[in-house]
Amino acid sequence: MRLRNKPWASDFISQYPQYLIQAPENQKGKWNELFGNDNPIHIEVGTGKGQFVTGMAKQNPNINYIGIELSENVVVLALQKLVDVELPNVKLLNVNANDLTNIFEKGEVGQVYLNFSDPWPKKRHIKRRLTYKTFLALYETILADKGEVHFKTDNQGLFEYSLMSFSEYGLLLKYVSLDLHNSNMEGNIMTEYEEKFSKKGQRIYRAEVQYK
């Protein structure tokens, strides 16, 4: 879904540099200094409107969260949400996921979340999927030893592809649910898309994988 251009987005973003970090490559290896503590750092790649990352931060105050979103028109909505709740353990980045290794040092990130990523269903776009092997390699570069990727989607095709991609990369499958909302998982924080899809009765798929 394409969002309308928000001409006010840049001005709004400029008012809150403490939340949406400019020149994040300057923080490489120093993210804990920015947060002011040594708590684990978890990142969400494709944070959307910010419901998940802010919800997780409320639920886990001893974890630092960084939401990454490419579209300025979307990340500004996450910023609005963050400004309203004023969570000290959340930062936002308006960057491309391809730049992760320019922003984080090896071992600086404890966990990666991929929530309702674009499925890029056409075969010619396979390399754009956030569970494609080149992205899995990026995550491995910044993750601590035995770091994890947690993945949710409503798209069965993407889920099946991702399980295959995880397996071929050699990741350890720790958890899989073919119907998350009818599972025994506790403490699930829903994204905006997840709420929308689940209300329509669509099944939500989830997996947790670990680097060996």
What does it look like?
By secondary structure, the protein is of the alpha/beta class. About 35% of the residues lie in helices and about 20% in strands. It has helices at about 10-15, 30-35, 50-60, 70-85, 100-105, 135-140, 155-170, 190-200; strands at about 40-45, 65-70, 90-95, 110-115, 145-155, 170-175, 205-210. The protein has a 7-stranded mixed sheet with strand order 3-2-1-4-5-7-6, sandwiched between helices. The mean pLDDT is about 95.
Gross morphology is: globular
Q: What's the mean pLDDT score?
A: 95
Instruction: Tell me the β content.
Output: 15-25%
Q: Largest sheet, order of strands side by side?
A: 3-2-1-4-5-7-6
Q: How is the main sheet built?
A: 7 strands, mixed
Uncertain segments: none
User: How many individual helices?
Assistant: 8
Rg over C-alpha atoms, rounded to the nearest angstrom: 16 Å
End-to-end Cα distance: 36 Å
Q: Tell me the total number of β-strands.
A: 7
Helix/strand order, N-terminal first? HHEHEHEHEHEHEHE
Given helix and strand content, the structural type is alpha/beta
Percent range for helical residues? 25-40%
Question: Keywords for this structure?
Answer:
single chain, alpha/beta, 8 helices, 21% strand, globular
Would you kindly provide a brief summary of this structure?
The chain has 212 residues and is an alpha/beta fold. The chain is built from 8 helices and 7 strands, in the order ααβαβαβαβαβαβαβ.
Compile the SSE list and pairings:
Blueprint: H1 9-14, H2 31-35, E1 41-45, H3 51-59, E2 64-68, H4 72-85, E3 90-93, H5 100-103, E4 109-115, H6 133-142, E5 143-153, H7 156-169, E6 172-177, H8 192-199, E7 205-210
Parallel strand pairs: 1-2, 1-4, 2-3, 4-5
Antiparallel strand pairs: 5-7, 6-7
